[in-house]
């Protein structure tokens, strides 16, 4: 750069390139596809290992195909679910009788010896998991345990080797272990593949998300985040539709995971994130990427004045330290530690409540697929609203309002008598509010940490947040003790999070911090609209 020439920051150049030019639109398509796939991989287990209806096989009664009246005196009624109990039947007084009459049974329950299944191709039947509900629920927890590992694992790859390497690695790992799982010979092999697939491939969404966010300037971050979130929702709806049509769980897995091979093929032909290249001091490569982007957008690269590109990371005082010194600064920074701790809890709350609402929704009505899709589709208006409210009212006010709304809806749903007139609307508003909070947290966390450690620190928060998603698959089991217990827990977590939000800085209309010093400075700055940070 010529001495005395005014520096231009990357955000200004990205604005000049045009946030919705051909270059970015092409990259949006290429990166939103792995975002879509990540919804398959993160939520597919909900229907892959879904609850199955089954009951005892009663000798002498099963031949009465068109008559099920015998069930009332052969098998006890599950009062809450209004269907025959799954694991017990009345003892047969005369096992040799083929008449299946009331007098053939006595008022004493005994465990089932064999079963009749609603779906003959289910995961539960094949691995003989009847009357072992905890094993079925454990699948989601094991999967999310792998996701817990993946966040730090993929974050380190992304920050050290680049965004596209992280996307390619995650998609390849997801395919390999997902494909292997579809041929599982046993339950233990099945859950092992779940853990490995999530552990090595679970960072697909955050890797693609960070890649997309770094393509645009500060004014487009919220819109781009909403695009990612709505793409994820579309994927989750497709999961429910697929599960509705495909009964065989092995075929279901193959259909979900085979498309990952496409990402692994084309990602290596994409340009690396210019922002990441700058954060690594590779200024010349970043300029080459920006020149190619300008040409694709039919712009003259000379008009962007790329030789004047500056970045705090390239200044002498920031070149003296190596990666270890940056980590040392982060460890010594009380401000950074406080943000990591609070953002981790906010993320944990969102994960627990978001996935908890989704998983428990299958029991909301008689058709589990429709219920699930309804609770999923309510997320779309949340992602539209978030684009408006985050920029208009700021991050803190939005998070505070949504957490409190979810608190109120959860507690009302828990304690009001169940009725279709208000129970389902309360549940949907609760899911809508936590979705809005989740989207806001994802955007907010990417704005409070520096570029050179952004993916790593986001991964730390996301990893801690995965504790919530570990617990979420087990929350339906709590309803066996009290039907309102899951939503009471959801409400309590949201209330605590609403109080923690007040301890964080506002980041509305502020450019992404590139160094730890800039990230710390957020707490002493005011936004361009005059919002005071704490």
UniProtKB/TrEMBL annotation:
Locations listed in the record: Membrane
Residues that span the membrane, as ranges: 25-47, 161-180, 186-212, 224-246, 252-270, 336-357, 369-390, 399-416, 422-445, 457-478, 484-504
Single GO molecular function: transmembrane transporter activity
Cross-referenced Gene3D superfamilies: MFS general substrate transporter like domains (1.20.1250.20)
Domain of life where this protein originates: Eukaryota
Membrane topology: Multi-pass membrane protein
Broad class of where this protein is predominantly found: membrane
Keywords for the protein's UniProt record, in alphabetical order: Membrane, Transmembrane, Transmembrane helix
Residue intervals of the Major facilitator superfamily (MFS) profile domain: 28-509
GO terms under cellular component: membrane
Entry protein name: Organic cation transporter protein-like
């Amino acid at each position: 750069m010529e001495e005395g020439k005014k520096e231009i920051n990357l955000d200004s150049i990205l604005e000049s390139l045009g946030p919705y030019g051909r270059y970015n639109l092409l990259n949006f398509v290429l990166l939103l596809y792995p975002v879509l796939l990540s919804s398959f991989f993160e939520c597919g287990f909900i229907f892959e290992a879904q609850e199955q209806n089954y009951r005892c096989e009663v000798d002498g009664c099963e031949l009465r195909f068109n008559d099920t009246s015998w069930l009332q005196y052969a098998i006890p009624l599950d009062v809450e679910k209004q269907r025959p109990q799954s694991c017990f039947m009345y003892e047969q007084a005369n096992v040799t009788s083929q008449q299946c009459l009331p007098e053939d049974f006595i008022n004493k329950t005994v465990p089932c010896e064999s079963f009749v299944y609603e779906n003959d191709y289910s995961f539960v039947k094949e691995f003989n998991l009847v009357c072992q509900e905890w094993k079925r629920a454990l699948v989601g927890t094991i999967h999310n345990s792998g996701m817990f590992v993946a966040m730090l694992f993929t974050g380190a790859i992304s920050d050290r080797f680049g965004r596209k390497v992280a996307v390619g690695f995650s998609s390849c790992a997801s395919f390999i272990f997902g494909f292997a799982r579809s041929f599982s010979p046993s339950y233990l092999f099945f859950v092992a593949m779940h853990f490995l697939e999530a552990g090595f491939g679970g960072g697909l969404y955050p890797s693609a998300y960070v890649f997309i966010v770094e393509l645009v300037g500060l004014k487009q971050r919220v819109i781009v985040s909403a695009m990612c979130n709505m793409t994820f929702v579309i994927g989750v709806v497709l999961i429910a539709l697929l599960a509705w049509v495909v009964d065989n769980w092995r075929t279901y897995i193959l259909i979900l995971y085979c498309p990952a091979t496409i990402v692994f093929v084309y990602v290596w032909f994409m340009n690396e994130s210019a922002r990441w290249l700058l954060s690594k001091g590779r200024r010349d490569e970043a300029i080459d990427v920006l020149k190619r982007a300008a040409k694709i957008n039919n712009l003259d690269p000379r008009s962007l004045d790329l030789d004047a590109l500056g970045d705090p990371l390239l200044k002498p005082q920031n070149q003296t330290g190596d990666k270890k010194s940056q980590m040392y600064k982060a460890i010594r920074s009380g401000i950074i530690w406080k943000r990591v701790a609070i953002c981790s809890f906010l993320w944990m709350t969102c994960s627990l409540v978001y996935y908890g609402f989704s998983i428990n929704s299958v029991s909301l009505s008689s058709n589990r697929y429709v219920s699930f899709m309804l609770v999923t589709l309510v997320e779309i208006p949340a992602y539209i609203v978030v684009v408006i409210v985050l920029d208009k009212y700021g991050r803190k006010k939005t998070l505070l309002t949504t957490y409190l709304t979810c608190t109120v809806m959860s507690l009302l749903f828990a304690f009001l008598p169940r009725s279709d007139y208000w129970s389902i609307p309360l549940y949907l508003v609760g899911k809508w509010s936590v979705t809005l909070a989740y989207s806001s947290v994802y955007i907010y966390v990417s704005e409070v940490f520096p570029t050179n450690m952004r993916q790593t620190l986001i991964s730390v928060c996301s990893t801690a947040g995965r504790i919530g998603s570990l617990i979420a698959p087990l929350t339906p089991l709590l309803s066996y003790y009290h039907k309102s217990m899951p939503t009471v827990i959801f409400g309590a977590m949201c209330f605590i999070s609403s109080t923690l939000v007040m301890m964080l800085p506002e980041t509305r209309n502020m450019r992404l911090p590139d160094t730890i010093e800039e990230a710390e400075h957020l707490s002493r700055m005011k936004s361009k609209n005059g919002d005071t940070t704490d």
